[in-house]
Amino acid sequence: MENQMKNDRREFLKTSGRFGVVSTFFGLNSLHVFGADSKQSKSEYSNNEVNSMPSQNPFLKLNNGIQMPFIGLGTYELRGKSCIKAMQDALKVGYRLFDTAQMYENEKEVGIGINTGLKTQNISRKDIFVTTKLSNDMDYKETKKQIDIRLKNLNLEYIDLLLLHREFDNSEAMWKAMQEAYKMGKIKSLGLSNFSQEKFLSFIKSCEIQPVLNQLETHVFFQRNKYQKILNENHVVLQAWSPFSKGKNDFFSNKTLLDIGKKYNKTPAQVGLRYLIERNISVVPKTSNIDRMKENIAIFDFKLDSKDLSVITNLDTQKSSFGWFKG
Ligand SMILES: NC(=O)c1ccc[n+]([C@@H]2O[C@H](COP(=O)([O-])OP(=O)(O)OC[C@H]3O[C@@H](n4cnc5c(N)ncnc54)[C@H](OP(=O)(O)O)[C@@H]3O)[C@@H](O)[C@H]2O)c1
């Protein structure tokens, strides 16, 4: 399975609605709302600002009206007890969004960690958002079965967001099964990952239920400006995977990010995440270290100025740090 997924992953390396943005805070007020039901125009999507934020975890409003936290915890490579502990720690320090996948082979541990955390920390299920992904190319019947396995593995009554992990030969048939699970209430939102711009535009034409987001490699070295514009025009949120480019290109010691961070007493990790958040990009940084979890979520109490933004924009190489997505 692992090997098959590695091959699949290599494969997507090769190939590879409407939405609104809300700055709503847990238990706090709403700043800007750009939603399907909002009267604001499309052009305003790009003008949304996440400014003057208190130290909370704000939300994006998806094209189906559901609110999703801006920041979540990535779980790739988290395994066993340390995965369970990471989920509980993350809940403790304020994370409410968790990103896993069939391929990560940790859904059970993610589920145990979340369910235990909810009980012991007295958090309501409705206040958390769990994403998983279908990682194998499957026919309609197998997809239906695999959706139920995801629910069983996670030990949840519903999944907040189910993604197609990449473009598959059977993407349309898989989406059909996903739409049915959505209508049955097993899944609250449907989305994509690693779809090229071309495939994204053709695929959404075939969807009865539109994807709410596309999860793509996105970070300061690969900023996705053009693709984000296309997603915005279709009301689909961009969510960044590997928002630190997994430390590649010396992300954590990058001089530009370090220098900007000094002005705000923030680390390169915080500056890099804040940059994406200011562009209304959701982020799922991964760490199993509670101090880093705290650091990575402490990005809502400062705002980059226009000079910072343009300097960081210049870091864009317009290329994948992993060499596996054609965009
Ligand atoms: N859809 C897809 O195809 C796809 C592909 C890749 C990833 N993803 C998702 O995106 C998530 C994030 O991507 P990723 O895990 O590849 O990489 P990432 O989040 O860009 O980087 C994770 C790395 O950064 C380190 N790190 C985290 N916070 C740090 C900090 N504040 N200072 C210094 N180092 C820090 C982590 O180390 P420690 O853990 O030791 O702290 C880990 O080595 C994944 O976990 C997964 O959920 C999706």
From TrEMBL:
What keywords appear on the UniProt entry? NADP, Oxidoreductase
User: Which species is this record about?
Assistant: Helicobacter didelphidarum
What superkingdom heads the lineage? Bacteria
Q: Give yes or no: UniProt keyword Nucleotide-binding.
A: no
- Oxidoreductase is among the record's keywords: yes
- One Pfam short name: Aldo_ket_red
Transmembrane regions listed in the UniProt entry: none
Q: What molecular function does GO assign, one term?
A: oxidoreductase activity, acting on the CH-OH group of donors, NAD or NADP as acceptor
Which residues does substrate bind?
Answer: 165
Write out the similarity annotation.
Belongs to the aldo/keto reductase family.
Enumerate the active-site residues: 104
Q: Residues in domain NADP-dependent oxidoreductase? A: 71-315
The record's Gene3D superfamilies line, in alphabetical order, gives: NADP-dependent oxidoreductase domain
Q: Which reaction does it catalyse?
A: hydroxyacetone + NADP(+) = methylglyoxal + NADPH + H(+)
Q: What protein name is recorded for this chain?
A: NADP-dependent oxidoreductase domain-containing protein
Residue(s) at site: Lowers pKa of active site Tyr? 133
